[in-house]
Amino acid sequence: MIPDQDFIKKQDIPGPTKEEVRCLVMCKSQVSSKDVVVDAGCGTGGLTLEFARRAKKVYAIDKNPDAIKVTRLNLQKHHLEGNVHLIEGNAPQILNEIPDFDILMIGGSSGELPSIIEKGYQKLKDNGRIMVTAILLETRVEAVKAMSDLGLVVDVIDVSISKGRIIERGTMLEARNPVTIISAHR
Asked: Which of 4, 77, 138, 185 is the one with CA 20 to 30 A from 10?
């Protein structure tokens, strides 16, 4: 995993997804060198870069042009731009324009999560996977409902991680933002 501190960040762009969460997403996604991945709402590119290290092809989508720029900088910094196609725009529309894929990773949806899941499901290959990382309670509920409405068996894990910081008297554990990973196989 690429350490969190090795990412270029911009204050108004979410990310990167924390290292420990990226580890779990990679494990749960079962990504392989044969997979084509779509990362919708790529932010600073934390998951895009990890998928780029493992997958055949990655389509990274974000409607924020600054997010696409920062993801590009992170890809260049880590020499991972070769198999990544960056696309600025609205994920539900872009999903119609790209070839079928194996994994749909949704990190940001701008309130369009059900539409992204439904359109992504239509383009998902057999045995494909849909993954959502959620920090909002509402996103968790929307993801489970949208996947269940498609007849998918949903897996939900909630991750609360604390990271140690050395202080004068010892090690203080500082909580990171809890994240829920919602996933399903086609």
From this structure: 138
| DSSP run (H or E) holding 141 | helix 137-149
**Which residue bears the tokens 């350490």?**
3
Q: Determine the Cα angle at 160 with ends 158 and 163, to 5°.
A: 155
Residues 133/17, Cβ–Cβ less than 8 Å: yes
- Across 12-18, average pLDDT: 89
- pLDDT digits 0-9 by tens, 57-77: 999 999 999 999 999 999 999
**Secondary structure tally for the chain: helices H, strands E:** 6, 9
Closest to 71 (Cα-Cα) out of 55, 102, 57, 50: 50
Of 46, 58, 155, 40, the residue nearest 102 (C-alpha): 58
Three state DSSP letters for 52-71 = HHHCCEEEEEECCHHHHHHH
Dihedral of alpha carbons 49, 84, 30, 123, sign: positive
Q: What's the pTM value of the predicted model, to 2 decimals? A: 0.93
